[in-house]
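Action item from last week, closing it out:
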Amino acid sequence: MKREIIITADGSKTIQIKDWEEQYHSKHGAIQEAYHVFIKNGLELFKDTKLNILEIGFGTGLNALITLKESERLLLDIEYTGVEAYPISKEEHIKLDHISTLQAESLNGCFDSMHNSPWEQKVSITRNFKLRKEKKDFSEIDSKNAFDLIYFDAFGARVQPELWTVAIFKKMYDALRTKGYLVTYSAKGSVRRAMQEVGFVVERLPGPPGKREMLRGQKV
């Protein structure tokens, strides 16, 4: 499907899939959404510890980049797994220019390493941030009790409902350690019920710009 780069409301860029009218991040602000959903309501639950993160939809790498940036402030030692079935191109990575928008020039080499690192291998991006990218469908995830935090950033249920099912959330629940969290921008009732059905304790939280609510689930 045809993809094009668009500028979102906070000045940051994302990729839009024209046929679906769906974006990799919110058109109301890609960076604002990433910070609100995945950092404020996910990463900031942890401090001064070792942390294993699973991202469902590695996409443009924006969530991983911001996590690396904020991990230094939070004194976190992170192992980050990003799952993506359809990686973006090197040309798209360059045009998105997330480094400039974040004013994070010191991380430019790290971000290039994220995109250039081989798939299915763990790579040390910094001393305290290791990345493993896995090129596969979300339905192929079979990890058990491996992660403390999941960023669930799949395309919306409107265009890919098969990614927001009880079966997928059961895989997410199994992949989390006890007391671990899953955070997502979605607030759909069907998503909340699917999460609850597999065992998550689900909170409705204020959403990022352009959305009234989002969801956070915990494995208890």
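Closing note: Residues 99 and 105 are 6 Å apart (CA to CA).
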